Amino acid sequence: MASIIQVENVSKVYDGGFRALDDVNLSIEEGEILALLGPNGAGKTTLISIICGLVNLTSGSVSVGGHDTIRDYRAARSLIGLVPQEIALEPFQKVLDGLRFTRGLYGKPADPDFLENVLRRLSLWDKRDSMTSELSGGMKRRVLIAKALCHQPKVLFLDEPSAGVDVELRKDMWEVIRQLRAEGVTIILTTHYIEEAEAIADRVGIISKGKILLVEDKDTLVRRMGHREMRIELLEPLASLPDTLAKYSLAQSEDRCTLVYSYEANGERTGIMSLFNDLNAAGIKLRDVDTRQSSLEDIFVSLIEDKPEART
Question: Which residues form the ABC transporter domain (predicted)?
């Protein structure tokens, strides 16, 4: 699949010497959903702002649809829709009038049918004649998305789109995002909700301290870096582990009634059968066994904390 956004060796250093981005390279494929994860101050919003032309880069280059964002900024920006983190709307403007105005700013001809379709998809059609000041926070967030879509961009940036949105509204927005991707729109979102990335992203990028730590297919990432944890409930408390079980690095619960065994999710040899055989040989009786797959959140936390095992 062709790349629609190319970020090459981009750095951003602010006055005073703060380095917000440090030699960032990123290729975003046409028609994908990329979730960009990172703690506060990691550089997510700075990177998006540079791609969208809102912040000047210090070094490097960015292209959108083959257009350099500096040399050919008009063509590059015409391909981009941005939903900012902050809700900044004209309070005394009607919703539909706001969309008409924004579409006109991009030099697009009037298209009432298209704008009606955008508003209906976002459950805003019945609010079309409402002042934005009359809307709830969640509805205002939807208006921002509608305004970003009104000039029919090829790329949509969503900076913390679910901030201040309740769970039901959030899931509705996820469905809208999936529909846009199905229509060929490339979507890049930053989020603090790990479950949001797990639910809708095709690929995940993790950024910390201005550096991209990795960009990888979500499912491949979980398989490659994930761990499984098996919890073995015992019929009777085990005062101490026999020497024959020392090689498994088992953890015990405080009540001594549960053993916890961790192993690689994609490992060829998990050691489970050997463990069960040794438990049986030691006369240890089992009540129940349960397994848990590590989540994207576990992987994210391990990378941000810079644990050596997370990079292997």
Answer: 5-234
